[in-house]
């Protein structure tokens, strides 16, 4: 960890100004990812703008029927919030499927969007990595890539976004509220994270100095028919190999509206709107789900040790859509879907 | 083979950071530390305050040995800077009980042999206190899941479950 | 006073209150004055040479005290033998910072010492080290042809016994046959406590090293030989160890580096490795096993061949007993066992919980399952039909062997008789596939030479000591139980001290021999003290024991009394007070009774029954139930012993389902070198586990009748799980761990 100065902001505008006045600075929310990256010398900011006293921890109803999640509300407080549980159980379950209770207590919603990949090579300075050091090469391609992506990868990077929460958010499609040196703006969630292309060092489409202040969830929460399915190498406290967030709106057995997003497969939470459109108007049957699953992974590409993810993703999509259609998943204070 | 350049993280060497006084409230006591921002809460406790009950098992938020309570909520102290916690009330294992006057969780851990080497134990117990404060775990499955942020390499999970369950159950009755 | 019969009773840990309150002190937690912090810089390459170290750039940082590297380490001991520790394998031990050669990835190349931990860490991150890289070889698969049979070298290593019968011919002629290769990757011990050493500089070249180790004596002799120190000037202490599992059997480079820095700087130094650096040294080696079994029509084994190959470093011949167990666990007249190692550009492997046997039992016990299915037999019935009454490897009877009782009691507890043989034939209420599997193993019951000292004071307090260790095994507790029972004292009156080279010599804490070795020494020492107390008691005024012989008395409930008449008694405290002595001491050193043991094979045994549920679409496996039945002689403390076996099962589940350190051969480097990606089981992975200790009396192994339980409980767990997965799915996974992708 390199030397840095620290200041604690008390207002959003101060934070943005402070950040702009320090080159090589970072915003510090809960710290659960940034401090880790600093210890690994992957992140080397010389100044940190402490955010934890900013008034951005509220969760409040919006006039349009939606819900605003403050950027500094912790993951735990968000998952356990009554409005989230009753109206966005998919989000409740996805958050609780991630990390550990301790991490969820410290990690913030804004920070969750800003998480960086868990690719082994990104974290290890002994190996080249285009995301960490642009132009140095991708060691995961041709290397050990069990955790890496199968969709939307590029020749320069096959890393995945590690979040569970963001997979549910991708399905729920909120807007991201940001403040920056040039004022405030909103970004559609699907446009927030990016694919690696030839600039894998860029995880998202934030402009320099912009700060996430909140997330506005639309009214529709798919609270009756949803599923968050997470597959990993142990029952808890592990990143997803594949995760699926599914939300369905049913009329009888006919799918009226659908949302489908995957984690563990791409550089961003992978929402597939074509697949969602394929579902609409169709009967909620295994046959429909199989066709949709096949479509989602039609362009998937394995890289050796992650080849299995293509088949696993397909099966996970079918299972998650079935669970969503059955409507037997509910909000809960604990995520128990990995249990036997 | 090519020359391997270096394993150094930075091009230049920057001067060490300045220290400044940081006020921390730990187990009800006020402490003033003269530290730089780069000191984590965990290192502040262990190396500066000699409160070594809080353990360093990975230093990356991947094991839970460093779990402390901040305003009653459990967090990994290794992934938090000490300077972030001015104004917070921090509780460590030393604040829960003493060998002569064990906290109910500490007694339950002894009774159920919920540890072997003891290194993850303070973190487990602080985590269990956090779990009880949260109030979301009641069944065995729920306790297992919400105690999964604390790795025990000795594999004392059966005892940990039974110890935490006993205290959770007593709490429900009370 | 209530009973003082503690041996065998479930007794809470005497060190429990210290551990649960955070007051137990581990190596990095000793507070010493004027201490500097060390931080290790590790090599990013697997093979080559250091060409330049830009130490001056970080020495310019205020607060950086020194940068140690091969360029400036002082002249130390020259010969390899000075670097050999008690359990070093054959070869030339690694010397940190010795020269410019890089022999493995993450090799320590420099040690930064600075005024604070944070500064040392920072300086380590900016130290520029230049390397000339060379081609490395880290793949065992590519080195199969280069396997060789190691010579002797390491304590405890036994080359496989000579073949017996005609295994090739018997295999060809048998009606049922199988052959297969089994593989598991490297695994790292990963104790929760990071390797750490706090060296206290006591002035004039004297140091105390608070070191994470399973053997303070081993570390002391290692350090004194290298640095030319007198034993009195190099005290090594470890009162609590945050998990060992074998990782602390050999002195780690962290201890060497911390002492080097302290001696050079004449100052106290603390060095703690990072979790990533915990993957830079010994580990359970990546092992390839080939098994070839045949069965006769009546279900008896016709032939058994077991060959193993594992990695070692370029500089040492690491060995473990992988295949020998296969020649003794089952009755078979035609057996051939083979064992080879192959050199790779990596660090030397290191004994890890049940070394050799944990690996070997994967191969043998999955092969036995395959053989049972090929012969159309229930896997437990197949084992019963091949029960070994004698150890055929050495042609000796077992001193005791209650494995048959383990099979019967374990099966009854598990409900094995309700198992249906066909794979995929059992499901749970949710429709998930259910599988039941069995596995087991055998481990040495060993006793080593050990010494202890006991001292009782006039207030009736007993202190017993030996330089053994406590790494979670319950040493403090069981030794206190033995001492308390031998002298008839309440356990609260007993203090057991350990982990200090100033105490009587004790063997390394490993091999499941501590209870037998140190326990015997503690018992013998307390008996010697008892005799002294008895002599004083006879001299007391009006002593009811004045005409008694030592054989006539017993120590119980705080008294010394006639066995025949408990009313004829004196209170222990009164004896000492009447004698006018402030304290009474005794010591003794105990060796195994070779004369008694010689005619026998001394072993513990176990069997494990495991239930898994498998989601056949998604490939997820959960181990919902395990019964582990163990025959390991006398159990000293049912509570702590049960915990050790529960932990063994958790280890076995890790080995079966998730543990594997994965190397990228392009870099010759382990890539999942952290707790986020090297998965060990968490609480949510663990469900019902039952431990059965089958009664087994044995007065041949040692007077206490204990065989040790640290390792045996782990045997067969991984195989039982893999066999259960086969039973559930019909898929035979021979490459552990059984992860999702292998079941799709």
Automatic annotation (TrEMBL), chain A:
Record-linked Pfam families: CO_deh_flav_C, FAD_binding_5
Domain of life: Bacteria
Keyword annotations from UniProtKB, A to Z: FAD, Flavoprotein
UniProt entry tagged with the keyword Flavoprotein: yes
SMART domains referenced in this protein's UniProt entry, alphabetically: CO_deh_flav_C (SM01092)
PROSITE patterns listed in its UniProt record: FAD_PCMH
Keyword NADP: no
Stored SUPFAM superfamilies: CO dehydrogenase flavoprotein C-terminal domain-like, FAD-binding/transporter-associated domain-like
Domain FAD-binding PCMH-type: 1-222
InterPro entries in alphabetical order: CO_DH_flav_C (IPR005107), CO_DH_flav_C_dom_sf (IPR036683), Diverse_Substr_Oxidored (IPR051312), FAD-bd_PCMH (IPR016166), FAD-bd_PCMH-like_sf (IPR036318), FAD-bd_PCMH_sub1 (IPR016167), FAD-bd_PCMH_sub2 (IPR016169), Mopterin_DH_FAD-bd (IPR002346)
Protein name: Xanthine dehydrogenase family protein subunit M
Species this protein is from: Hymenobacter duratus
Automatic annotation (TrEMBL), chain B:
Domain 2Fe-2S ferredoxin-type: 20-96
InterPro entries hit by this protein: 2Fe-2S-bd, 2Fe-2S-bd_dom_sf, 2Fe-2S_ferredoxin-like_sf, 2Fe-2S_ferredoxin-type, 2Fe2S_fd_BS, Aldehyde_Oxdr_Iron-Sulfur, Beta-grasp_dom_sf
Pfam families cross-referenced by the UniProt entry: Fer2, Fer2_2
Name by which UniProt lists this protein: 2Fe-2S iron-sulfur cluster binding domain-containing protein
Organism: Hymenobacter duratus
Keywords attached to this entry: Iron, Metal-binding, Oxidoreductase
TrEMBL record, chain C:
Source organism, top-level taxon: Bacteria
Record's compositionally biased regions (Basic and acidic residues): 135-147
Region called Disordered, residue ranges: 135-170
Domain Aldehyde oxidase/xanthine dehydrogenase a/b hammerhead: 21-135
Cited InterPro entries: Ald_Oxase/Xan_DH_a/b (IPR000674), Ald_Oxase/Xan_DH_a/b_sf (IPR036856), Ald_Oxase/xanthine_DH-like (IPR016208), AldOxase/xan_DH_MoCoBD1 (IPR008274), AldOxase/xan_DH_MoCoBD2 (IPR046867), AldOxase/xan_DH_Mopterin-bd_sf (IPR037165)
Gene3D superfamilies referenced in this protein's UniProt entry, alphabetically: Aldehyde oxidase/xanthine dehydrogenase, a/b hammerhead, Aldehyde oxidase/xanthine dehydrogenase, molybdopterin binding domain
PANTHER family named in the record: DEHYDROGENASE, XANTHINE DEHYDROGENASE
Protein's name according to its UniProt entry: Xanthine dehydrogenase family protein molybdopterin-binding subunit
Provenance organism: Hymenobacter duratus
Organism classification: Bacteria, Pseudomonadati, Bacteroidota, Cytophagia, Cytophagales
